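Hi again,

Forgot to attach this to my earlier email, sorry! This is the prediction with magnesium ion bound. I've pasted everything inline since the attachment limit keeps bouncing my files.
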Amino acid sequence: MPSQSPSHELNQILVVDDTPENLRLLSDVLTPRQYHVRCAKSGSLALLGIKAAPPDLILLDIDMPDMSGYEVCAKLKSQPETREIPVIFLSALDDVLDKVKAFEVGGADYVKKPFHVEELVARIKHQLNLRAAKLEIQRLNTLLEQRVQQRTAQLETTNSNLKREISERQKAEEKLLYDALHDNLTQLPNRVLFMERVENALRYTRRHPSYKFAVLFIDLDRFKIVNDSLGHAVGDQLLVAIARQLEKCLREGDTVARLGGDEFTILLADIDDISDAIQIAERIQESVESHFCLEGHRIFTSASIGIAVGSAQYAQMEDILRDADIAMYRAKEMGRSCYAIFDQNMYYQTLRLLHLESDLRQALEREEFLLHYQPIISLTTGKLSGFEALVRWEHPEQGFVSPGEFIPLAEDTGLIVPLGEWVLREACTQMRQWQLQYPDARNLKISVNLAGKQLQEVDLLDTIDGILAETQLAGEMLRLEITESMLMERTEEIIQVMQRLRDRRIQLSIDDFGTGYSSLSYLHRFPVTTLKIDRTFVSNMSSDPENFEIVRTVITLAHTLSMEVVAEGVETTEQSIQLKGLGCELSQGYLFSKPLDRRSAETMLQKRPHWTVESSDSSMLPAYSR
Ligand code: C2E
Ligand code: MG
Ligand code: MG
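Structure tokens for the complex follow:
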């Protein structure tokens, strides 16, 4: 009866037996059952055959002359290529020990001869199925392994891609962070990073009160000139060069940052005392002052430095920077290449200026300004020649604020233009009124100070024309005082404006002469009618021969140029006598009178005073005409 087909493709069976009949019998039994049967007559032949073409199963006789079945089996099991081939022993021996041995040497099964065909076939089939199953498991395992390897490879690629992506992202983030914390021109830390470090220093100070640090605020002097004259590219290069120079001046642990423009800041960590900071400030100034060669230009620069010492008393880091900034401004006021150390007074002064500035904006509307009038006396006649109008600010809380304080503030903020216009109108109105009111006042002149900004206003002439028309004051009764330094910028335009003022017969006076550039040689270019010698020369002329000579030279020069001379700040009889002796026409000072309010000025006008300039002690007291 034909049996079922052997399991899968496993159908190669090797029969090993030294008895030819057995071989034939088995071949006859198995061949019709779709097995492909090969035969070997001895163990050694079997081994050769197996090596050449391994079968799927071996039916192995035990008792053979050249080599026992056990030996054959043991050999097969010792070789990796043949180890897995199932061996079914066929033997007439039926001892249990034989069976045990058969299994010990690696046999898969044991069939006793004479065998029952169906049993043998069943056992063969069973072994082949087992073998097939094992092979399938092996195949699946290999497949699985391959899959795993593939997946692992894939995962590894994904993983390395991810890693690359992460590192790129990290780099991008680092770059972003770097950019956010650094100045992209000089690559120095920027304000944000600097403030962070100051904050850390401050925190540390709070825990360790003996720890001190300093903040330096550095501003380049005249950087704007470099930028404007040589271009921004050179300006940028200069900033970079300065940055590198600053870095060289520092110790490890210090931070130099660029706040913007030409402003740099330095955090000096862990200093013993202020002298450490001073030493570094001096080092910086020295190194910045050595010239820089940029694109063929030799550039000289210098730095103003403000120093603030950090201590636990600071509540906020911004305050330290602010104080260093305030000190820097103070250093700038002292001249170029200076340093200043912050103290609390500077803060109050700055604060006061800030308040003043905002108050100043409202002062005009609130009519807090008024004029005082200081008499100007003719040394020739001893009579009143006119007044200088001097503005006063009656601050609602602070009382009188000195013009020395608020005039520069008004100039900085541009408020000087409306304020100056008010002064001009008020002074002209007043003088015209006095001229009408007092017979002796008909020829009095009013001197009004003009700020540089006013002189640059395009509608200055219109304004003055308007005021003169409004008040009916004659042009020659108005004397405008301008300081020397105003003449140095935009000279040609200024000369034109002055010329047109002269066309209106307005008098022009150079105020504080000698304190500015004091170049006598340019004076003839300006259509000036009066020179006002600064009080510093006048006050020293009696004691200092050199000053006396200066005053004499100025008077002589002025006369050569057909100008009158007014001496400012005359406080002693001696001065007035000397001035008169030198031919000085006019004089103004406490000796004659302090600036007077309107009522006092009117009292004086009523009394028609007369001064005698003589060398008797009491001569300078005004003798009042009746
Ligand atoms: P300035 O034009 O040189 O005015 C003269 C200053 O010297 C006045 O100071 C005056 O009070 C003072 N003075 C007069 N005689 C003597 C003296 O014998 N000894 C001493 N030590 N000082 C004397 P003041 O009023 O404080 O004005 C200061 C400056 O403020 C003025 O200097 C002027 O530059 C400016 N200023 C005043 N009013 C105005 C104004 O309406 N407009 C402008 N643009 N500036 C003004
Ligand atoms: Mg003046
Ligand atoms: Mg003056």
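The domain at 12-150 is CATH 3.40.50.2300 (Rossmann fold). Residues 476 and 506 are 5 Å apart (CA to CA).

That should be everything now.

G.
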